[in-house]
Each structure stands twice: as C-alpha cells, then as structure tokens.
Amino acid sequence: MKRTFLMLGIITTLQSCTQIASHSDSEYTDAMTLDTSQFNTLHEKYREPALYHRRFKHEDIDSLVQKHRQNNVLAVQAIGTSVEGRSIYKLQYGEGQKKVMLWSQMHGDEPTATMALFDIFNFLEGKEDGMDSVRMLLKQNLQLHFIPMLNPDGAERFARRNAQHIDLNRDARDGQTVEGALLKRMAKEIQPRYGFNLHDQNIYYNVPNTKNPVTISLLAPAYNHEREVNDVRRGAMQLIVGMNNILQQYVPDAVAKYDDTHTPRGFGDNFQAWGASTVLIESGGKKGDPEKQEIRRLNFAIILNALLEIAQGSYQKYDPAGYEKIPFNASQLHDVMLRNVRLDHDAVPLKTDIAIRRGEVTVERDYFVQGRIEDIGDLDEAYGYDELDAEGWSFIPGKVYPDVFKTADQISFDNAWDLLKQGFIAVRVASKGQNRLHNLPLVVFTQQNFTPTRQIALSGTSNFFLGSGATLRYAVVNGYLIDLEEKPKEGTYKNWVH
Questions:
Q1: Minimal CA–CA distance to 245: which of 422, 399, 39?
Q2: Residue 294 three-state SS
Q3: Between β-strands 437-438 and 464-468, what pairing exists: parallel, antiparallel or unpaired?
Q4: H helices within 191-292, ranges in order?
Q5: Reduced to 3 states, what is the DSSP secondary structure of residue 116?
Q6: CA distance 402 to 423
Q7: How far apart are CA 140 and CA 282, in angstroms?
Q8: What is the pLDDT of residue 340?
Q9: d(Cα 237, Cα 217) in Å, to the nearest integer?
Q10: Cα–Cα distance measured from residue 425 to residue 478, given in angstroms and rounded to the nearest whole number
Q11: What is the distance between the alpha carbons of residues 278 and 262, in angstroms, rounded to a whole number?
C-alpha cells in the first residue's frame, strides 16, 4: 500500500493532462517572453549576496527564510525537520491553478540551484522595476511550491547523503528516511502538475567528442523501464526544449542530457509517474567558475523562463523532437590532459598521455584539492579543462627546498613563485599553523620526509616538472598545470599543509 498512496491523485492529474494538444508558434505570438539581457539584468539586481560560495550551511538558509517570512510575499511554512532536527521549509507563491513543485539540495553537496532559488525569491518580492507584469502573470496562473534545501544535514557536511547515510534520491519508493517521506507527503498534498528536480552533477561530463564541459544537463526522467513517452513526459521534454533554446545563447554546445535509464527508486522518475511533468536540472562545470556562480545565473534564467512558459502554456509550441537532438553526457573530461610526455622508466623510453583530476576535500566552509593521476596511455578520446601538447618535453622530478619555514604564512606568493621556477616543488614548515589552507604554487608539508613524484603511476601524486635538460617549462603542483613563463594570479590554488 505504501507504494500506491498517490494513486488517486495520480489518476486525477493524468486525466487532466491527457488532452494536451499540438500547438503552432502562431498561437503564442502574444506570449510574454524575456531575453538573455533581461535575465542578466534581473539576476544582477536580485542575486542573493549572502550566498556566494557552494559550502553554505543550514543556518544561512534559515536566516534567509526568516527574512522572506517577514516580507510577507512568499508564504513560508516549516514542513518538517531532518534526522538531526534541522528545519525544512516550503515557500509558496501564487494563486493560480497550475501547481508547480521545485525542490533542491536533496543531495547536500549539490547547492547551485539552491542559490538560484533564493535569487528567484528576491525577484518575486521585487516591484516597480518594469517586471511587475511578469510577477502578476506568475501569481495569477501558477501556484509555486519551493523546497530549497531538502537535506540540511548533508549540506552541513557538504555530503551527498543524509545523516543516516542514505541517498534521498533513492528513497522515493519506500520513503524510509524522514526527508524522503516528507517529499512524498508534499507530493501527495500538493499534487503538482509540474516538477523541477534540482541537482549538481560532477564537472567531468563533456559534450560527446568535444572538450566542452557539460555546463547544464537536462532530463525528462522515464516513468517506466521501457522509457515510453506519454503526455506527461512529453510536456517535460517540451519544457526542456525551451530551456535549451535559452542555454544555447549562453553556453553554446555545452548542454547535454542526463542518463535516462529508469530508476524505480528515484524521485524524478516517480514524480513523472505520479502525473507531474518533471524536469531534472543538473548543474555541471564551466571553466573559470569553481564556485558555480555563472551556472547559478543560468539556473535563474532557465527556471524563471520555464515558469513563464508554464504560466502561459507556451512551452507546448515546442516540438519534442528537439529534446531527442540533445546529446547524452559523455564522461571523457579531466582537470588536466598532458599529451606526448616523455617518460623514461627503468631506462625504457616511453612517450604517452597523462590525465589528472583534482578531488575536493571540504574544510568547514572551504576546501582544498588533492591531485592524482587518473589515467596513463593512449588518451586521444579524453579531454581536459587545461590541455598541453608536451611534445619535446620530458618528466622531471621536483626538488625539496632545504630550509625550513616556520609556517606557510611566512612564505609569500612571490617567494613561492621564485622557488618553483628554480625547480623546488615542495617546502617544509615547522608548524601547520592555524589555517592549513593556502594558495601557494607549492607543496607545503610538516613531516620529516617528503618525496615528490618520482614516477608517474596510476592514482599516484601529481607534483613534477616538464622540461628539457636543465630547462624547466611547466610545473604540475597538486594537479594544477602551471606555465612557468606566466605568473599566476594569487588565489588560484586550493592547497593544504600536509
């Protein structure tokens, strides 16, 4: 019985949407639309300044929710608490007949859309900016239900799963967790006609056969194993076509589809089966945007655009065939791709490719990276955010600076840069200091003995030089590729005192 509690609502919703007709563009010539310059202007004006990095906490969200409660534009409701007792909120806007549910951060380390939702909340509370007609359109036609942080315990740790180590997005069928059961209850009570399942995907997906990172991935989840298309799923596909039209103006050739294998335990798949045209948005990667602030702006634009199209029904003009033309994610991307590096191992010459990735390790509201060798060999079909054809350059081990510094704070960026150019890749400090995070282009360590990378090995460290003879041309420090002829900006690196 617990898996069929929505059935009556599902049947009602399905009956109400099975007559979606084919529409021509001419039927929507009077539809209200916004262009990218307008979205940009709105986002600059309404971007929530309290959220400026990915590792914000529940207390940050809680204080913002209380601010919106006092503004009395959005109806704020505490709908439940997490395993560890943190409040989970729903914010509601609009009095229309079309019900829309949007939920974010069911994975605690996937916060990009959460930031965008608070930007949208600020917009909805705005006035006298030339956009009051947009707000009135949304208010009169839609009933919006936002759950901006479903997994606050995971967000506290910047971890995917909840405090019980369960993936909430695999709890739609049984509702074993308090958070999963809460989302199911909201679906039953609201019976939405549309759903937005908001996530982040890893930054190593690329558009197939290109080095382009997938900045935004979209999906109309399958409601059964056969991946059939009914009117409900078709509506989600049409919404995605409209989103992709906007995205191609921002990030051309950087959009893909997420894997559409049916997941019986997944919320997106089940919302689709429950009668809500459901769109999955996955925020991916964009070079130069480590905190995903640009991708946050894209979320703001495509979500607000989709809500406008739902309010007017204008998304129905799109041919679902456009959805099928969006390619699926490929997984061929790395942080650094080095090609044609000469390695001499046991006196046997070798020229090969090296792929490097940098994993993040969270420290409170910040993080450091750990670079590692991801792959070695013929990697013609692999790509990197940074790529280098190292033809003519050989692997050269780095040196450890002989003197000991007191702490990393004693080493200036300029001093570190000079040491790196001299072939020193690591320095020792007597103390880790109060803040072990640093942005120096060096490995900083405290232990008595430290060995820089002596041999390129799978899953091994990535601290070495590339050069020819006595000439050093490039350095790789903790997975960062550094051109020794171009001094980097301070703040580029996220390193840690070992």
A1: 39
A2: helix
A3: unpaired
A4: 231-250, 267-273
A5: helix
A6: 12
A7: 29
A8: 98
A9: 13
A10: 10
A11: 14
Contact 314, 31 (CB under 8 A): yes
Altogether, the residues listed in the chain come to a count of 498
Can you give the pLDDT at residue 433? 87
198 φ, ψ (degrees, to nearest 5): -110, 125
Q: Check: CB of residue 239 under 8 Å from CB of residue 315.
A: yes
Read off the amino acid at residue 468. S
Instruction: Please give the DSSP secondary-structure letter assigned to residue 20.
Output: P
Contact 221, 272 (CB under 8 A): yes
pLDDT tens profile 289-339 = 999 999 999 999 999 999 999 999 999 999 999 999 999 999 999 999 999
The two structure tokens encoding residue 454: 């002596």
Query: How confident is the model over 471-483, as a mean pLDDT?
Result: 98
The pLDDT value given to residue 474: 98
Find, among 114, 123, 121, the residue nearest to 40 by Cα.
123
41 three-state secondary structure: helix
Neighbour count for residue 394 (Cβ, 10 Å): 17
CB 435, CB 426: distance < 8 Å: no
Whether 184 contacts 175, CB under 8 Å: yes
Instruction: Give the model confidence (pLDDT) of 360-391 as tens digits.
Output: 999 999 999 999 999 999 999 999 999 999 99
Kindly report the number of other CB atoms within 10 A of residue 278's CB atom.
28
pLDDT tens-place string over residues 256-273: 999 999 999 999 999 999
Question: What tens digit of pLDDT does each residue of 25-46 get?
Answer: 667 768 999 999 999 999 999 9
CA distance 295 to 281: 11
The token pair at 227 is 């991946």
Would you report the helix, strand and coil content of the chain in percent, each value rounded to 5? 30, 30, 40
Distance of CA 488 to the CA centre of its chain: 26
